[in-house]
């Protein structure tokens, strides 16, 4: 008899497994894939280069609690991600900053001057409802078309005017020369990779793991008390209110007989090519190797569900599933797929730590 059956061995499931096991609970964690670590899974390819199977995973957080918690299972390698955009035949920093504007327009503006420059370009929108509104409101149409419109269309197969404001709000505009992609307090990569971190997280004697296992095949066979489900919530309920749409990515890896391919970790292609970006893993991992591996990302509607699509009508479908889930008090839904929300890794960890506290407090209430 297991106390908890956890479906999914990514961040959401693994953090809960570790926390509950540390409290003396017996855990069975199952995953359809043949490996742990979910989409954060990394491994050494034939050339000995550490690559991320499901595209680049770059860790950043403002939460000291999350950073310290994961730090129990890994040493960190400080890393600040930088992204260039291929725009008008130049490679310029993304998010848009002072350098981006000066290089694109051949100017030599100061921070104050670039604030005025962007204000002169901006098309004020009110209320701000869509991703298009967010960008036009800050930088205007020209920069919107150079940096956002094409990239968003490729990534989501929707015009920014059809997407929730939260999508482009993730990418700020800066008036200084800060060219880091993220400005979070803690920015680092697990020193020996994500998979090694997950191995340590899941090494507790109270945790059993079954890979290449669909939970439906064992749910009526293996006894357990409580289910934690990190898969797609619509799948759990057999799509009774319809299928929640996701975007997937077709990853194309290439190993090159040269030390480096590009000048930074990621280069975005907002207006050219079918792929959205190219990432070179050695920047992320700090590895030394005479060869290098890059990955091209081609967004697609088919494939593993990676990105919930933030639109009002999708949220309404999810809300129906969420309401239905309230009739299942013995099942907890969590993670990006279980709550149909576009979370970063640190947000998923924080969500799982919060859910652990909720479960613990409920159990204490029952005992009293």
Automatic annotation (TrEMBL):
**Transmembrane parts of this sequence:** none
Mitochondrion in keyword set: no
Q: What is its EC number?
A: 5.4.99.9
Q: Which GO terms describe its cellular component?
A: cytosol
Molecular function terms in GO for this entry? flavin adenine dinucleotide binding; UDP-galactopyranose mutase activity
Give start and end of each UDP-galactopyranose mutase C-terminal domain: 146-342
Q: Does Isomerase appear among the keywords?
A: yes
Family annotation (InterPro entries): UDP-GALP_mutase, UDP-GalPyranose_mutase_C
Q: What are the record keywords, sorted?
A: FAD, Flavoprotein, Isomerase
Which prosthetic group or cofactor does it need?
FAD
Which Pfam families does the UniProt record give?
A: GLF (PF03275), NAD_binding_8 (PF13450)
Give the family this protein belongs to, as stated in its UniProt record.
Belongs to the UDP-galactopyranose/dTDP-fucopyranose mutase family.
Report the protein name in the record: UDP-galactopyranose mutase
Native organism is: Chryseobacterium aquaeductus
Upper taxonomic classification of the species?
Bacteria, Pseudomonadati, Bacteroidota, Flavobacteriia, Flavobacteriales
């Amino acid at each position: 008899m297991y106390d908890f059956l956890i479906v999914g061995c990514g961040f959401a499931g693994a953090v809960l497994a570790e926390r509950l096991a540390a409290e003396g609970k017996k855990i069975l964690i199952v995953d359809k894939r043949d490996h742990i670590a979910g989409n954060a899974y990394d491994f050494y390819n034939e050339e000995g280069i550490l690559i991320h199977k499901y595209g680049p995973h770059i860790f950043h957080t403002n939460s000291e609690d999350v950073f310290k918690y994961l730090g129990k299972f890994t040493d960190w390698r400080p890393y600040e991600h930088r992204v260039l955009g291929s725009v008008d035949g130049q490679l310029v920093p993304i998010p848009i900053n002072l350098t981006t504007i000066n290089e694109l327009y051949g100017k030599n503006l100061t921070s104050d001057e670039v604030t005025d420059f962007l204000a002169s370009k901006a098309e004020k929108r009110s209320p701000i409802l869509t991703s298009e509104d967010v960008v036009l409101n800050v930088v205007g149409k020209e920069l919107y078309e150079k940096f956002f419109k094409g990239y968003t269309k490729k990534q989501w197969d929707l015009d920014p005017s059809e997407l929730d404001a939260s999508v482009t709000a993730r990418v700020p505009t800066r008036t200084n020369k800060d060219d880091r992609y993220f400005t979070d307090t803690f920015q680092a990569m697990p020193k020996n990779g994500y998979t090694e971190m997950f191995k340590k997280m899941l090494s507790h004697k109270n945790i059993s793991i079954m890979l290449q296992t669909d939970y439906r095949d064992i749910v009526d066979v293996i006894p357990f008390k409580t289910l934690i489900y990190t898969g797609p919530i619509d799948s759990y309920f057999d799509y009774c209110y319809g299928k929640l749409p996701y975007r997937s990515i077709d990853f194309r890896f290439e190993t090159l007989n040269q030390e480096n391919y590009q000048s930074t970790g990621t280069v975005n292609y907002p207006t050219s090519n079918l792929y959205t970006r190219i990432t070179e893993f050695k920047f992320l991992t700090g590895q030394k190797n005479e060869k290098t591996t890059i990955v091209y990302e081609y967004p697609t509607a088919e494939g593993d569900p990676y990105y919930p699509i933030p639109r009002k009508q999708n949220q309404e479908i999810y809300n129906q599933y969420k309401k239905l889930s309230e009739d299942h008090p013995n099942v907890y839904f969590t993670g990006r797929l279980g709550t149909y929300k576009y979370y970063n890794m640190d947000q998923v960890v924080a969500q799982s730590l919060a859910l652990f506290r909720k479960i613990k407090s409920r159990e204490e209430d029952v005992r009293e």
